[in-house]
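Before the break, one more example. Copy the sequence into your notebook; we will annotate it together after we see the structure.
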Amino acid sequence: MPRKITSSGLPTRQQILDFVTSSGQPAGKREIARAFGLHGHDKILLKTLLKDMADEGLIDSAPGRAFHKAGGVPKVTVLRIVAVEEGAVAVPDNWQGEGPPPKLRVIEKGRRSALALNDRILARTEERGTGHVAHLMKKLQRSADLILGVVHEDEDGRKWLKPVDKRERRLLPLSDLGGAEVGDLVLAEPSGRPPRVSAKVDAVLGDPFAPRSFSLIAIHKHGLPHEFRDETIAEAREVSTLPLGEREDLRHLPIVAIDPADARDHDDAIWASPREDGGWDAIVAIADVSFYVRPGSSLDREARRRGNSVYFPDRVVPMLPHELSSDICSLKEGQDRAALACHLQVGADGTLRNWRFSRAVIRVAANIAYEEAQRLADLHSPPPASGRGPGGGSELSEQGQAHPQPLPQAGGEQEELWPILFPLWSCWEALFAARNRREPLELDLPERAVVLDEKGRITSVAPRERLDAHRLVEDYMIAANVAAAKALEAKKAPVMYRVHEQPTREKLTALKDYLATFDLEFALGQVIRPATFNRIIERVGDSDARPEIMEQLLRTQTQARYAPDNLGHFGLALGSYAHFTSPIRRYADLLVHRSLVSAYKLGEGGLPPEDATSFTEIGEHISMLERRAMEAERETIDRYVAAYLADHVGQLLDCRISGVQPFGIFATVEGLGGDGLIPAGDLGREYFRYDEAARQLVGDESGDAYRVGQRLQLRLVEANPVSGALRFELPEGSYGRGQAPRRDRVRRPAMGKRGRPANIRHQGRKR
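Here is what the structure looks like once it is written out:
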């Protein structure tokens, strides 16, 4: 029964509802009183009226003691982003009303969205027509990110969440299983405050040890978009039927695509032919993605949101739908394909003399695996001692023109390809010579290759072989990327450069101190070039410290990124460099394509003005996405390595110390990778001191030292495929901290009991 409230100045219930609904700011008691001119005793009556309206279910109280219509949304409130496809959509972060929470369309300043799924924002809301909109005020720090983990059960039957992140060692009690069972891989939402933090299951992902689950862990952990919307797929199917239009016809040229044997897409193909002046004409044909993916389309928005394709051993998370990435935009053998062709004139010394770009139609003569291209080159070419380069050589005619040499016949279905490949190798030898004169950074750090069978089970893990065929394709791509950057510079068009700045002074100082521990001098006053680091590697030679020092040199380098300002590419020793050759898998390349289309007036699909003015923001965005993808790929490889080593638990493995910290050492399995920790307390029954300068742990009593780069045999104690974590111990076992055995103790001389003799009483003053 509402209390009787009498005052001529008080607003009616409907008037209060109308005010809190239409107010452009949070409406609390103070704002309502001010709006209706209430003073003194009327304010007390207003407080009672508002309480009655809340009890009657007419209004709700929002944070900050503001009011809003019951079942509605506060004027200023915290929202959580639940969709970002066609603009951000949010729901109230803490919904207490009946029925499902309302969805609000988020209005941001500017055209580009910086919001991601599960982001929390503070927003001002308003009702428009049949729905609500939210005006972004600020993005809040995510305080309750979903945790990826595995459900465990203890002896008492309690359920716990064990995070897959190997840096997170605590278990969280599960307050709500959400249908999950013990052993399931789940996404859980933490709640509460330390030390009483629990979690409730938000989604069940299945068996973490099933095939393809390791990449699934990375996908969910890093929030990688891995499913395309129906609208985007439909658009991809529609644009794939577009007629190619007027293009330069290059179908008569025997262009070939050289890719990994298991490549899902082929976005580049190459051709070369000798010139009368001793140089070569070359073409680097790249899939014309800009023709199919137009600015502002659903495909474009999805590509920008992803930034790049992500490659796992068991799957690919593509930037573009299958209809484009592995079908119409893939340069398949014997099929007409739209291409953006980079025409190069290469001098006899390997320098780029000229270039032009055109939209073309090509027909790839063959898709060749790197291994097959290398086999043909090894079979047909003279030994490297001919002096042309590591990929085999050729003799030159009197005019300086390369010609294939008479060779013995070899079997195989692709032997007829050698006349096509020979000019490519000959031109590459010149490009390779120019590369050597430039002296780019040469860090021979092997990549790990995980081989799976048809059921997704691991068959082997080994370093990926580096062939001359890889270098051949790489140098053609570098030449095209340089040409793209210089062509856009000449046209004064926007360029999305691949920027790699030289190391900072701080990193160089740290490197100097590090190299001093190996008795290697490094002068800070010299001009730092890539060749500076190459000389260090040459001085190290084949010593055991070589892998460690190369890893340290890599850490000294800055992180490459995308930016519209030309700061050069330090690692490649190039002044102008832009990624152009992989628009299927990199959004940066697609932007360069669009800029070339606009600059050369090649038709539709050019760069819109609003993108040209936003290159700085776009560059930062896609650089962040690239780092995310690299981390996801690296973590997945670590999980596969751990799964492969799970069958070797208890065995001694050849390892190398990869890191030393005061709390222990990190070791890597030789040839496989994967880091594992040995706590300092497990190194021996003595105290180990950390020598920061020498990067080693030294035992106080024995003098035993463990330093970075040291090779030793360690016993594998644990290999956790879910987290990718390894744990080692010394061959003689884990010591653990504790008192030394009695035989090792130094016996002290016997001493009598200290203090007053027992037969003498204290005779002090009585109290």
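The longest strand covers residues 352-363. The first helix runs from residue 13 to 22. Try to locate both features in your own notes.
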